[in-house]
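Message: I would value a second opinion on how I read folds in token form. Give me a protein, with the fold worked out from its sequence. Write it directly below this note and I will take it from there.
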Amino acid sequence: MRVADLFIDGLGCYLPRPYPAERAVAEGRYAEEEWRAGGWTGAAVAGDVSPPEMAVEAARTALERSAHQAADIALVLHASLHEQGPELWTPHQYVLRHAVGTRVPAMEVRQGCNAALGALELAHGHLSADPSRTAALVTAAENFGTERVDRWRYQSGARMKRPSILGDAATAVVLSTRGGFARVLSLVSGSLPELEEMNRPRGALFPPRRTRTGRIDLVARMIDYARSDPGAATLARKAVDAARTETGLRAIEDAGLRPGDITRVTHVLSGGPEYIRSVLEPLGIDPARGVLDFGRALGHMTTSDHFAALHHLVETRQVGPGDRVLMLNNSFGVSLFAAVVEITATPSWATGTPSPYKERT
């Protein structure tokens, strides 16, 4: 979908100081063979800072960097994947209350690692419906320091070309219809709902008590799926790869561009060079245009991967006016998303040097 009059006006990022992977190995938290094979040097660890608190800080930064006031924000969308705080609580209202302070609609977007990217399209629709709406705020945040997730071993035992560890982070974007340092050229989304069972544990869906206690074992779910029908599992992987490639190419075409016009690509911060090649080469894009090196010290930050990477590229001046960034992702479900963003100006906060990490509490 070709997009008109949608800009990124403010961008904020909360990155906790990484915990060294080598130390996690020495402490027995991270298997040495997986560490050496995976290439991860650390994982961002937020300590006891909750995801909504991180999101509020990122949102305040994004608002300060934008030309908009809090009163201009017509919608708040908070993207999440893992636990945000107490059950039956509304983290999106917390973000609205503490970062914006008005009574506009606020909603939580649950779309796996695609949640923040999917929120872009939802926000675009909301702003397009009424010309008096000029800005929206999208936040994303995760803290995997809970008893239900082992950030160092969550993929242990999986034979995947995208091994990873989990990192904590928050990001925020102020979207504007008036202008900004980047223009959104296209948005493309889709689903492969027939593959939802790849991430569904075997057995009854209800009551959910069985999946609400103990560690979340995503690897076991995928192994069970593969064992139940090995042929289907192979076809599923091929279907995901093909759909992701199609989504990316559509976004590039809808933006009026060709693959060679793409300067950089943000992708899931997972896997290694082999995985990044499998994502970018089918698009006709050099894998060197990816952002794997940025994520090596931080881990897979799930909902914040893409905007953290975009923030890094802009802040360190690896992209500037005229550069185009493809944001491409698939997540469990299976959901697919791609966007093409063109940098139109160098914001004042793009100093050429990364911001310091946030210290754990």
